[in-house]
Amino acid sequence: MTDSGAQGTPAARTVGGFDHDGRLWVLTLCAIVGTAIGALLPPVARWAAELPWAPFQGPLRLLGSFDDPWLGWGRPGLGLVAGLTFGAWLIVDSAVLEIGPERINVRRRGQVERVIERDVVASVRPRGSTIIIETDRGRTLFARDVEGDKAVVRSAFVDQGYPWEGPRE
What is the Cα–Cα distance from 64 to 62, expressed in whole angstroms? Predict the structure, then answer.
């Protein structure tokens, strides 16, 4: 879905970041894992502290000693808060690329973190979910995970005339 600018050049495209369903999935998963860790950490730590070969016996005994009655619900609650905080950090820290015909703006945390001018880009290639942008001398200008459909990410670069070196999915 490329819009055309006033002179017939394609308008900038935005790729990356999490959509609504992706944000919900990340927050839910992190909340479940955080709650489970908060609930299960002391019993597992007590068990591991009894193993003679387990390292860090002192810290394991300390973690296993958190057994006050209020911690029965407090640990899972703290784990939930920690999980949601970690999930929010993952969402906010994900890279969003604004790909235009003259430059690529890399946004993180809502602000432009880096501007990559078109004339220095020699190749754009995927490696899994990571997008790698390099100069003609092999200097890496960008190498981070970009969330989203691989075909949409590829299309955004190709439509703007960037040299894509990867599958045509």
Answer: 5
* Residue 101 DSSP one-character state: S
Residue 10 within a domain:
no
CB 15 within 8 A of CB 146: yes
Q: What is the largest CA-CA distance in the chain?
A: 73
The model's pTM: 0.73
How many folded domains does the chain comprise? 2
CATH assignment at residue 111? 2.30.29
H/E element, 145: strand 140-145
Coil vs helix vs strand at 72: helix
Spatial contact of 99 and 163, defined as CB atoms under 8 Å apart: no
Element containing residue 114 per DSSP (H, E): strand 111-117
Domain assignment present for residue 15? The answer is no
Q: Confidence band (pLDDT; 50, 70, 90) for 90?
A: very high
Task: Give the domain extent around 48.
Answer: 20-92
Domain presence at residue 3: no
